[in-house]
Protein: Flagellar basal body rod protein FlgB
Amino acid sequence: MKVFSTFQPLEQAINASSLRQKTITSNIANVDTPNYKAKKVSFQEELENVTNSFKSFKTNPKHVAFSTESPSTGHLKVETNKNTLHKSNGNNVDMDYEMAELAKNQLWYNALIDRTNGKFNNLKMVLNEGR
Structure:
């Protein structure tokens, strides 16, 4: 059994969430910049790659089999939204949308950090022989 098999997918998801956070805050910072076009991280594809990389182990022959295929190494992409126009100065940042995305991303990031901390706490308990 691989003890550290879930750390890499968690790390990739945290890195993706961090990039998304930077992109959203950049959009918010440029809300009044003329001709600024909002950017977005193509996050869902990477999320699916990361979550599909989790391995499962059958402890009983009656358990449902899970796919253990490794995902392809996807890259995060920051895309510029050129299709919309919200202001007369050419800027297309929607502050309400960006704030909602920021809140969603923060919740996701916190959940990933909590899960990572749980993994480290489990390892710590094993190293301390359950004490």
Observations:
- The first strand starts at residue 39 and ends at 41.
- Residues 53 and 70 are 5 Å apart (CA to CA).
